[in-house]
Predict the 3D structure of the following.
Amino acid sequence: MKRVVITGMGVISPLGNTVSEMMNSLAAGTSTVKYMDGWTAYKGLRSLVAAPAQPVDEKQIPRQNRRSMGRLAIFAVLAAKQAVADAGLSGADLTGGRIGCVVGSTMGSAGSINETFEIMLPGRDLSNLTSMKFFQCVSHTAAMNISQYLGITGTVLATSAACASGLQAVGTGFDLIRMGRQDCVLCGGAEELHPTVTGSFDVLYATSTKYNDSPGKTPRPFDRDRDGLVCGEGSGILVLEDYDRAVARGAKLYGEILGYTTCGSGDHVSQSNAPAMIQCLHNVLTESGLRAGEVDYISAHATATPHGDVEEAQAIAAVFGGIVPLSSLKGHMGHTLGASGAIELIASLMMMEQNTLYPTLNLENIDPACAGIRHLQEITRKPIRTLIKNSFAFGGINAALACRKI
């Protein structure tokens, strides 16, 4: 098996539209959650807070290309452009057939899907739809549009596993390279905000509803007073590369991927399952050749749902005890769903580079049911050589990825 390293990163997020902007906002302890004006037009929607991405200049993408992109795909293409530039890849590299693209999302563009039905359903008239609307709505819209825009001719895949989509994409890219099928893969996730997206969690009673008048106080991962998740949006794209190739061309190495695993719980469609999470964490340690005490940081999934945070805390406690420091970044930027695994992995890699760990925002009173693990409640500076990123999705889909500093 080939060694796999990370040589480029790009991000569009509520915390900023470059990696440096995002890290500066994390360092400042910024909350990006806002009251969403206009969402009251959707009857029955109880959660009226969200974390929108910072404004983007979509005109960086020519109109001819942009016609097939919803908001989600625009985020993904802009993040991919950053990642390619950061990695120093050329046009000839991208079109040579040895570079692939694996990018996931929960669904296609939520805004475009909603628009499609609003146009079509009143008169059940399909003739009013534009020819490009389909390409904005398909579940592989991010991967498709990135590969088309950049001229990528290698493997193109789209992972679709709700909140595990972004991390599964990185894991899939890792597998493609270590097995020698590709030399390099652009991978990550993307998601966009829309009232119907928040609404899909709202009807499951999984959203935060008590803080509409004080949006900066929610979500509250692991906190006694948490009441649910807050949706965010954006995209995180990483360039994964064969180690020997990266070293030969003098690329910057953000870290090496040691192992990746994903598994199902087979238990419940919407409830998290600690035993399955424990198995996932044990698997990634085994594949990475790591002992629990050798991990320096865990980037927790922790969406601030009452049940999910408890199950995750119990799983981490069972595997790592109270040794390894961990935090959830969702207090800063909400839950970016299919993009979260990739965006939070990028932030974690930068924390590893800077030897600085950022705490869980809004964690003021640790829920006793989430105790037994080493929560970060303040900025902590310490040597960081290894980290684990977790993603635990609806449908009982678990994923974990381990990285180390080079």
Summary: DSSP finds 14 helices and 15 strands in the chain. The two ends are 18 Å apart (CA to CA). The chain has two domains: 4-248, 259-404.
